[in-house]
Amino acid sequence: MIQNAAIIPLLKDVARQEHQLQLTCDSCALYSLCLPLGLHRNDLETLDSIIKRSKPLARGQALYKMAESFDSLYVVRSGAFKTTLTAADGREQITGFYLPGDLIGMDAIHTGQYQASATALTSSSACGLPYDRLQDLSQAIPALQQQIYNRLSKELANDKQLLMALGQKTAMEKLVGFLMALSRRFEERGYAANRFQLPMSRIDIANHLGLAIETVSRLLTQLSNGGLIDCQGKMIALLDKPQLKILCN
Amino acid sequence: MIQNAAIIPLLKDVARQEHQLQLTCDSCALYSLCLPLGLHRNDLETLDSIIKRSKPLARGQALYKMAESFDSLYVVRSGAFKTTLTAADGREQITGFYLPGDLIGMDAIHTGQYQASATALTSSSACGLPYDRLQDLSQAIPALQQQIYNRLSKELANDKQLLMALGQKTAMEKLVGFLMALSRRFEERGYAANRFQLPMSRIDIANHLGLAIETVSRLLTQLSNGGLIDCQGKMIALLDKPQLKILCN
DNA sequence: CGGCATGTTGATGATCCTCAAGCTACGTGG
DNA sequence: CCACGTAGCTTGAGGATCATCAACATGCCG
C-alpha cells in the first residue's frame, strides 16, 4: 500500500525544483492551481506584470508578521507556510497551513495590517501580489474578480469546518480529520495522497487542533499500532483510508 | 451602571420598527452599516434595484438551509441570525451570529450550494442580494467590489479569532470574550454596549463556544455572584468591564 | 560528535462533560 | 385569564477526556 518514494515525487523534491527558476505565470507548474486560472492570455500577462516573485525563505523565516502594514497577498509557490495568530497574553493559535497554490493574507484586506504572522515551514517561496494593483486589475478582469471571491469564500468555508472540529470533535477525530484533509490537498496538487511528508511539526499540529503535543503523539502511535497508518517521524502513510474515514466521520 | 431601558432603545424594539416599512437603501436606518456605504447616488440606486427585500422571518425559521442551491447573499435588516454547520453524523456547530448590517452566506460563493443553514433567532428580516447580479455590479462599481472584499476579509479575521478562542482559551475566557465581542457589536450599531438582550439561547452560546450548556450556565451565575455582570434570563448587563477584560485577556 | 529541539511514553490530575433532578418562563389552548 | 405543557435554564454529583508534569529517546544541524 505504501507508494515508492522514488516513483511518486515528494513535496520536498518538487519544492526544490520550483525554487530554481520561475519567470512567468504561464510557464509555472502551479498554473492550474493558481489565481490566474481561467484568465485570457492578455489578462494573464497583465497580472504577471504586477507579481513580485519573492526570494526563497528558509524554514522558520517570516513571509510577514502580525501587525506589519498590509500591502500584498501571497501565493505559495513551493514549500509550505503556517499562519499564526498571537493573543495579548502571548498564547498562539495556528490558523492555517498553506500549500503551493494557496493564497495567504486575505484576512488582512479589510485593515491596514496583517492579522497574523506567516512563517515558512520548510524551504519555501511565494509570489507577492500588491493588493492595490490586484484590486484595480480585478476591477478590469471579471475572471480575476471571480477568482478572488472564490478564494476568499473557500478559505471561509475551510475555517468554518475547522470551527466544527475544534468545537465538537474528539482529539482522535480532530487528528484523523486533519490527516485526511491534508491527504486530499496533496492529491489535488498531484502528489501522493496516501504517503507524504508532514511539512509541520507535532507541536504545530497540536496547536492547530487545540490539543497537547503529547496527545497528538499518543494518538499517532495508537493509529500506527492499529495498522491504520504508518508513521516514522514526519513521513506518514495512510494505510486504511476507509477505516480512517470512519474515525473522523 | 445599568442603563435605563426606557432611554436606550433595545434591539428588539428597533427590530420591530425596521420591520414596518423599508423601501430603498438610502432611506434605510442601516445605511451606514451596510454594504452600499460609500457608493455614489447613481450606483446606490442600481444596487437598490437588484435587492430583494424578504418578508420577515419568525424565530426558528430558516433564511436558507445547508446544501440548498446558492443564489443570494443576505444582509440582516433586523433581528438576528445564526449559521449552523451540520456534520455527517448530525453534530452541529454554530459558526456565527449575525446582527443588522452583517452579510450572510459568503462561505457559499465558491460552490453552488449553501455551506451552512441560516436561522432567525428572533423575528428578523434580511435583504437578499442575488449573487450573479452583485458580481456584475461589483465589476462596474469599484467601491462595491472593495466593500465585498472587505466584508469577506472581516469575516475571515473574525473566524480566525474564534479559532483562537476554541483552540486555546478556557471556558471562562471563551464566554467572557464572547460577551465582550457582542457588546462591541451592539455598540457599533448604536445600541447600548453595557446592557442588552441576548438574541440567542444558552444552548446556542454553548454550542458556538464548544462548551456544555451547564458550563455556560454555571459561569454566568459565577460572574453574576462576583458582581461582574447582572444576568436575568436573556437580559445581560456588563457591570465591570475592566475586570471582564482581564478575564478574557 | 555534541547540543538542542523535537518527539515518545508514563503517571497524575484538572477542567469540563455527562447524567440527573428540579426550576423558570413562555406560549397555547381551554 | 388561568392551567398546562414544553422548552430552556439552573444546580449538584460523579466521571472521562485530555492537559500537565516528568523523564527519557530520537534526530537534526552545526
Structure description:
Two copies of one chain form a homodimer. Chain A is α+β, with helices and mostly antiparallel strands and 249 residues long. The first copy, chain A, folds into two domains: 12-164, Jelly Rolls (Sandwich), CATH 2.60.120.10; 169-248, Orthogonal Bundle (Arc Repressor Mutant, subunit A). Helix content of chain A is 42%, strand content 19%. The first copy, chain A, has eight helices and eleven strands. Chain A has helices at residues 11-20, 41-50, 131-140, 142-168, 171-188, 202-209, 213-225, 241-248; strands spanning 52-53, 62-64, 72-78, 81-86, 92-98, 103-104, 117-120, 125-130, 195-197, 229-232, 235-238. In chain A, the strands form three sheets. A four-stranded antiparallel beta sheet of chain A has the order 1-8-3-6. In chain A, strands 2-7-4-5 form a four-stranded antiparallel beta sheet. The first copy, chain A, has a three-stranded antiparallel beta sheet with strand order 9-11-10. In chain A, a hairpin with a 5-residue loop joins β4 (81-86) and β5. In chain A, α3 crosses α4 (142-168), α5 crosses α8 (241-248) and α6 crosses α7. In chain A, 45% of the residues are buried. At the A-B interface, β5, α3, α4 and α6 of A face β5, α3, α4 and α6 of B. Chain A binds a DNA duplex (30 and 30 nucleotides) through α7.
